[in-house]
Amino acid sequence: SQTIHQWPATLVQPVGSPLSLECTVEGTSNPNLYWYRQAAGRGLQLLFYSVGIGQISSEVPQNLSASRPQDRQFILSSKKLLLSDSGFYLCAWSVGTASFNSPLHFGNGTRLTVT
Amino acid sequence: KNEVEQSPQNLTAQEGEFITINCSYSVGISALHWLQQHPGGGIVSLFMLSSGKKKHGRLIATINIQEKHSSLHITASHPRDSAVYICAVALNNDMRFGAGTRLTVKP
């Protein structure tokens, strides 16, 4: 069966520090991978998605970046965190040729607090 | 105006009641998703549909493409259904999310 691992579950980082959140998927090949953010009191926002190794599409310009070094690994990074980067970050995967027309499977999320 | 509007924002029901959550959207979509977010933050995908109706247990989702409207129904609601329900629409290369409906089912 397919599983998705996302870590860490919670993270407190000072402003200006770097960030690396990792997500891995097991039990499926060539998944579509996504990073979402949910800021406090706000709805979900798609940050990045990837349909294959090295292929990253960004939906929101900001100081975050994503990489997909392996088929089932998706990494969210920042060189210098801002206070506004605080939020709940969710990784998700789906399969199929159409990126957004397949059921989504979410990780448990990382709650990031930038102080 | 948001591209995806959900109503109501908050809903409190007694156990056993029939629940309806509505979602209206203003853009052309290829699919619509209903998601459930539990208090701890975890999100579960309930339905993905592009036409008609889907049923899973006590949950029913319908969509009317012409009217750009979808509904999520919960029959015989239970306190464990308490969660935030989120409507999301799939565009060509993007997704748009509603603000969510917070449902509380009291025993």
Structural account:
- The complex is a heterodimer of chains A (115) and B (107).
- In chain A, the strands form 2 sheets. In chain A, strands 2, 4, 5, 6, 9, 10 and 11 form a 7-stranded mixed β-sheet that branches.
- Chain A is built from no helices and 11 strands.
- By secondary structure, chain A is mainly β.
- Chain A starts with a strand and ends with a strand.
- In chain A, 0% of the residues lie in helices and 57% in strands.
- Chain B is mainly beta and 107 residues long.
- Helix content of chain B is 0%, strand content 60%.
- In chain B, the strands form 2 sheets. In chain B, strands 2, 4, 5, 9, 10 and 11 form a 6-stranded mixed β-sheet that branches.
- The radius of gyration of chain B is 13 Å and the shape is globular.
- The termini of chain B are far apart.
- The model of chain B has no long low-confidence stretch (mean pLDDT 94).
- Chains A and B meet through strand 5, strand 9 and strand 10 of A and strand 4, strand 5 and strand 9 of B.
Give the percentage of residues in beta strands of chain A: over 45%
Helix vs. strand class of chain B? mainly beta
* General form of chain B: globular
Distance between the termini of chain B: 36 Å
Jot down its keywords.
heterodimer, A: 115 residues, mainly beta, four-stranded antiparallel sheet, B: 107 residues, six-stranded mixed sheet, 60% strand, globular
Structure in a nutshell:
The complex is a heterodimer of chains A (115) and B (107). With 115 residues, chain A is an all-beta fold.
Note the topology.
The complex is a heterodimer of chains A (115) and B (107).
Chain A lengths: L2 E5 L2 E4 L5 E8 L5 E7 L5 E9 L2 E4 L5 E7 L2 E6 L8 E8 L10 E2 L3 E5 L1
Parallel strand pairs in A: 2-11
Antiparallel strand pairs in A: 1-3, 3-8, 4-5, 4-9, 5-6, 7-8, 9-10, 9-11
Chain B lengths: L3 E4 L2 E5 L4 E7 L5 E7 L5 E7 L2 E5 L2 E6 L4 E6 L8 E8 L4 E3 L3 E6 L1
Parallel strand pairs in B: 2-11
Antiparallel strand pairs in B: 1-3, 3-8, 4-5, 4-9, 6-7, 7-8, 9-10, 9-11
